[in-house]
Design a protein that fits this description.
CATH architecture of the largest domain: Alpha-Beta Horseshoe
CATH topology of the largest domain: Leucine-rich repeat, LRR (right-handed beta-alpha superhelix)
Distance between the termini: 21 Å
Helix content: 25-40%
CATH superfamily of the largest domain: Ribonuclease Inhibitor
Radius of gyration: 27 Å
Structural class: alpha/beta
Shape: flat
Number of strands: 18
CATH class of the largest domain: Alpha Beta
Largest sheet: 11 strands, parallel
InterPro entries: LRR_dom_sf
Length: 505
């Protein structure tokens, strides 16, 4: 039998229940407002007054909770919940007869009050990267002044000019800000404001922002504490980026989708602080002398020999996108670097020789291969005592092809804990049965197969019998041999036995 759930702490349960109650209250508010507006404008105005009073009551109640440890947790979760509720709430699309500028302002104000009811000044992270509603974006940006202690602000793409102007006006209140992210629509004006008022910034991501150009460089240089800087695909030139790298002493990442060779050739100093490089490079021998301490290299669309990377002595992770492992001479690089690699990540790579990874990566922990072609030795026999098979803890495979069947080796990874396989017909009832029969997956905690071959209920039962440490299993909706009745019975089995198992549908 798999592990049973550990009882939650009383404090954790209380926090969860309170967050659920607050979410339900917000849902009740929006439902009542929708219902009232159908009855007529007077009913709607009366209901808004009631909701406004309840908002004040909720805010007053939350203000009595202890900080930290309770209120900060409640506020963070409740803000996230309120954002979801408000994102789906728009009375005026439903009822056109109330669609006047005055009514829109009333609606905006009541939504502001709903969010203000939980937006107490103990919110340290504001992450709305996935909020697409311009209406909700504007409300959140408008209320930033209520949380001057925010240290991390992650914004979705803001297209509304008024909202961008509002952001400019709110930045001066965010003096403790350490992280800022805004893709596509950040501007020089916003960067200038950040450099004036947010001098504690250590992370700035403005990737793909065409309105950030070389005029922002002198202002970015004022942010001397920057550790993570991403200005890739902006209008900043190679020369501007070289200036930033040369004069910002703490920056730990190079992210540049233009010509990295030019940047590394003309940068004014050895970049001892750099730990991560993302980009495309022609002359790999440039990397080690300029960035000797780099630990993670991510190479995009490369077509040149990368054997020069073997001079890097500290690399523990390497990623490749859109290339041929034979053209880039991956074997030569892996032969020397492999002894320290704990992560290898390959996307859209052809001619991957699995033998190289098995023999030259003895301490590998994570292996990701997606949309790639795999090759290997014809004999297909490996000693299960090889260090590689003992070290790997996580494997993720997605829609790979080729004559070599890497999946047939999965049972050799005796300490594997996490396995995700997506879009590979080879993984079916027969395959999983053999895998478990050969003694594989004894330590697996997460096993997810998505859009594989024919998979049915006997395989679920076999996995449950053999993988006693399992905590995640799925994705069942894509298993063609599972009926709705099978799924319901299994979910009931998990619940009735109180198993600590998350089912991905």
């Amino acid at each position: 039998m798999n592990k049973r759930k550990e009882p939650s702490s009383l404090e954790s349960e209380a926090n969860d229940k309170l967050c659920t109650m607050i979410r339900d209250v917000a849902i009740k508010w929006t439902r009542k407002l929708r219902s009232a507006v159908v009855k007529g404008r007077q009913h709607w105005l009366l209901e808004m007054k009631i909701v406004q009073e309840e908002c004040a009551q909720l805010r007053g109640f939350l203000a009595t909770l202890p900080v930290p440890g309770v209120l900060d947790i409640i506020v963070a979760q409740s803000v996230e919940n309120l954002i979801k509720v408000l994102s789906s709430f728009n009375n005026f699309r439903v009822v056109p007869r109330l669609n006047t500028s005055y009514d829109r302002e009333l609606n905006r104000n009541i939504c502001i009050n709903m969010l203000k009811s939980v937006l107490l000044p103990c919110l340290y992270t504001c992450n709305i990267r996935n909020v697409d509603s311009a209406f909700v974006q504007e409300i959140i940006v408008n209320l930033l002044y209520l949380n001057p202690k925010v240290i991390d602000l992650q914004l979705s793409v803001i297209c509304d000019k008024y909202c961008l102007q509002l952001l400019l006006e709110r930045i001066p209140s965010l003096i403790d800000l350490q992280g800022f992210q805004l893709r596509l629509t950040c501007t020089n004006a916003i960067v200038i404001k950040l450099s004036e008022y947010c001098t504690k910034l250590t992370k700035l991501f403005v990737e793909d922002c065409a309105f950030v150009d070389d005029d922002s460089v002198e202002h970015l240089l004022k942010l001397a504490n920057l550790v993570n800087l991403n200005v890739a695909n902006t209008s900043i030139s190679n020369e501007g980026y070289i200036t930033l790298l040369s004069r910002l002493p703490l920056v730990q990442n190079i992210i540049w989708y233009d010509d990295l060779d030019i940047v590394l050739t003309y940068v004014a100093r050895c970049l001892l602080s750099v730990r991560k490089i993302i980009g495309s490079i022609s002359n790999s021998s440039l990397v080690a002398p300029i960035c000797p301490n780099v630990k993670h290299v991510i190479l995009l669309s490369i077509s040149n020999d990368i054997s020069g990377l073997k001079e890097l002595k500290s690399v523990n992770a390497i990623s490749f996108f859109q290339c041929s492992s034979t053209v880039i001479n991956l074997r030569a690089a892996i032969t020397d670097m492999g002894s320290t690699l704990t992560r290898v990540d390959m996307h859209q790579v052809v001619n991957i020789d699995i033998d190289n990874l098995i023999y030259f990566c003895p301490v590998l922990k994570l292996l990701i291969i997606a949309y790639s072609q795999m090759t290997g030795s014809e004999h297909n026999f490996f000693d299960r005592e090889l260090p590689h098979f003992k070290s790997v803890r996580e494997i993720r495979l997605k829609q790979n092809w080729g004559a070599y069947d890497f999946c047939s080796l999965l049972h050799l990874y005796i300490n594997l804990e996490i396995c995700y396989v997506v879009g590979m017909d080879r993984v079916d009832d027969v395959f999983v049965g053999r895998l478990l029969t050969f003694g594989g997956f004894k330590h697996v905690t997460e096993f997810v197969i998505d859009n594989g071959g024919y998979l049915s209920m006997p395989t679920v039962q076999l996995i449950m019998k053999n993988c006693l440490n399992l905590t995640v299993l799925g994705n069942f909706r894509s298993w063609s041999g599972l009926t709705e009745n099978d799924l319901n019975e299994f979910l009931q089995f998990v619940r009735s036995n109180n198993l600590a198992l998350t089912i991905n549908l």
